[in-house]
Write the structure tokens for this entry.
Amino acid sequence: MNWRKITFVVIALIVLLGGSAALSKLFISMKPEPKQGPAADVKRYVSAKQVVYEDIVSGVTALGGVIAGNEVLLVAEAAGKIEAGAVSLKKGASFKKGQHLASIYKDEMELALKSKKSVFLKSLTNILPDLKIDFPDSYQAFQDFFNRIDLNKELPDMPAYDDEKLKVFLASQGILNDFYSIRQDEKRLERHSMYAPFNGTFTQVNHEVGAYVNTGGQIAKMIRTDMLELEVPVENGFSKWIKLGDRVKVITGQHKNLEGTVVRKAAFVDQNSQSRSVFVKVTPQPDVELLAGEFLSVEFPGYLIEGAMEIPRSAVFNTNTVFTVVDGYLQKQQINIIKVNTSTLIFDGLDEGTYVVQEALINVKERTPVEILEAQVSGNTPTKKNKDEKGS
């Protein structure tokens, strides 16, 4: 009895669900389909400009670092203890040309040199009587030479002589040998004192006063501060527009700018930056301080490019391709790039009168319908071009 009731209930449920599904499908089929209108013709508005070629003066601006005109090492030409000069042997200390920078201990060598001069004086004393008898014409010159010798000063020049007999006599008495031996020691003594070859400053000091240094030891590194240059890395494509001797403007950021001259161009390209260094000699000004290591902007002169047009770099893709507008549709065309600037480029290769797009377009392809916006004039909002002007 219970099984019959359960079976009856299940069959009833199946009938009800089947009937509901059938009625739902019937009602859906009776609903009228919505009318579809014609597909909308979606157009984009683009900024485009008519190609007109003219003469363009285009310059190059780049950032360069100030470098010293000379950078040299102060090297010891003798061994010994470093003694103080007229300038503090410290990093950052400045000096003037000719100032005494430092000395290598030289007391012993000075004494040895004075001893040699004393022996030389004795030798001259011995030959003077013979000179007076055998070579009377040369006697007074050698007497004056003897009188001018000072143990604390450099040896004066030997008197000139043309007599071969006098030459043999001086050589046989050892006068010539002693004279040039003393001169050699004087040159060696000079190497114990170091003087500034230019106005400059120490950028690095390896040995200070009191330290012992060997011959050839690097005491310090110094740079020249009264003759500065700018090393300006320029894109290799730009460098061909820069010529030796060009006058440039150096923007200092102070109350006045400086002038400079292009003096060198590197004959190689940096592998990492693909730039070529251009060196500019700066004309110093007393009221403008330049320091080695700072960066300044350099404006190179403009050069005339005939029959060209300038557009934003963002408008160019695939190296040298642009979109043009032809009969209201986008069309790709290639251009001939003459010069690439920081944000623009100069080109030719399109027919004059062609409308070239001035902006970067995203998710577009050829034959996309477009409307051209007129360029802003005096701050006005761009408007659509007249239909009779489109695609002309």
